[in-house]
Structures are given as C-alpha cells and as structure tokens.
Write a structure and sequence with these properties.
Organism: Anaerotalea alkaliphila
Pfam family, one: SLH
Structural class: alpha+beta
Strand order of the largest sheet: 7-6-10-11
Number of domains: 2
Number of strands: 11
Distance between the termini: 53 Å
Shape: globular
Largest sheet: 4 strands, antiparallel
Radius of gyration: 21 Å
Protein name: SLH domain-containing protein
InterPro entries: Intracell_prot_inh_BsuPI (IPR020481), IPI (IPR038144), SLH_dom (IPR001119)
Strand content: 25-35%
Keywords: Repeat, Signal
Helix content: 25-40%
Order of helices and strands: HHEHHEHHEEEEEEEEE
Amino acid sequence: MKDKLRTVLMLMAALAVLAAGTPARAQSLPFTDISDVQGKEAIVALYEKGHVKGVGGGLFAPNAPMTGAQAVQLLVNALELDLDGVRFVKEPLATDHFIHANDGAWYAPAMIVAAVNGLEFPADLRPDQALTRKEFLHHLSGAMGIGADVLDAGSGSDPTDVLRRSEAAVLLVQALAYAEGKTGTGGLEHSLTATPVEDGFLLEFLIVNRGEAQTLTYSSGQQFNYIVHDGNGEVVYNWVIDKSFLMAIIEQPLAKDEEFLLTDTWNLADNAGNRLPAGEYRIVFESSFSLGDTPVTISDEVTVVIE
C-alpha cells in the first residue's frame, strides 16, 4: 500500500513539475523540429533512454497525432515492461486481448506485453486511430497505478522500480501534455490516403483550412516528407533522402474552407532502389511549415500491404 501511495504522489509531482515548467539548458537536440517546443528537454531525455526514436529524417513531429499502437509501444518502452517470469500455456497473441489488432504487425509484441502487465487499454482499441494527448495521459495514469499493483503483489519490491517508472511518467507528461490544444494550426484539418496504382501507391495528403484565411510558409522549397516503416517498425524509406531542394520560400495561401493537396507516388522501393518484399508497411506523411512565426508540423499515417 505504501508503494501504491508513493506512486500516486510521484505522478502528482510529475504534474506539478509540468505546471511549473522546466528550466532551459544548453544541449544538442536529436531532432530538428523541437527547438521551440515547450517539452523538448523531456523529449531529449526520452530519446537518450531509447524510449522514442522520432519519425525519421531527424524529425520528431511533436504535433503529429499519436495512434493507439504508438501509445501502447511508448508506455511499454518508457515503463520498461516485459514478459520476464511469465509462462504461457499457448503462444500469446495480440488478438487475444485487442480485437482490432494484427498479430503480424510491428506493434503486436508491445500489445501482448501491455495486456499481460495489466495496462488499461480497451479491448476495442484501434491501433491506427489517433489518440488525444488527454487520452494518452489517462492511459499513463492507469499504467502507473498498475505498476504499483504489481509491486504490491511482490513482483518488484525494489523501491527504485517505482522511482524509475515515476521518472518516466514525469518525462512523458512533460513531453506530451503541452501539445494538447497548442498546435497553432488555426483550424487546419488533414487526411492521408494511399491508392494502389501500377507498381506503387499514390499518396494524397489533403489539408483543409476550417479557420480564418491564413498562409502556410514553407522553407527551402520542401512542402512534405514521408517515411515508410516495415513490420518491425524500422525505417525502410525516407522520401527526403532522395531529394534536393532549392533555397526558396514557398507561400501557400488558404482561404476559409479551401483545400491544398500534396501528392507523390511511392514505387515500393527502399532508399537503395530495391523493391521491398511482400508485407505490411506503415507510411507516415507530414508537412512542416510556419504560420506567422509559429513552426507547425502536421502528420498522418496509413498502413499498406505489398503483395
């Protein structure tokens, strides 16, 4: 019971730290798009611990939506959960616990670990559906409570285990909570579709302005990037690596309810030009620009199957 109380108090402390803010310190940033982010030091700390890897191309995409699968993976990583000491009478499957899961997908092992450790994710969680930061923090709070229950059961009586998880909670709160309602997109909506075409997929990233008229300002002539992940979550293709851009400023005005479409065709190859093998791949498409003096990155993702 004392361990559980300590966990709750430490999570409350995490929220207090967030409210007070984090003092700045000079550091080398692992991602190029977090220099103006309030939670950048926590993001760096999570990166240094190996809990976050970014989306590729030196980007973290701090304002991109987090999917259910990503939330499960992040909590499992940050809280250092595993299956040590667990014995199964049958092969564990993600679909034993999550009805919309794919047992062959990159997130399946994390879903098994999360379920066995008692993380409070609903059985009907949709892996590719975006979560709000508020929803993620709800799951984080539940995860910390479950961590205390595990300790009470004698599974990890060392108090440093509670401390380690609580420190992870502090970092996650700092890194993620700031983004809710603070993306500065001014009413921009977006969607990504991947349509099969001959020898590839046509990617269409639609941006719609539901707010007042505004201008999207792109630097260096680059309006988008997309990264392809294989079933293990490894980056197999990064569009920007194959491109070069003129040092030019592109301004895209958008009136209220006006649309802006970004398109490209991925030819199923990796950055070496080799055709990728059959399997499931996750494509993360993003567009980074400025609204006035505010840097913004919007992102969406889709899963495709190469046959």
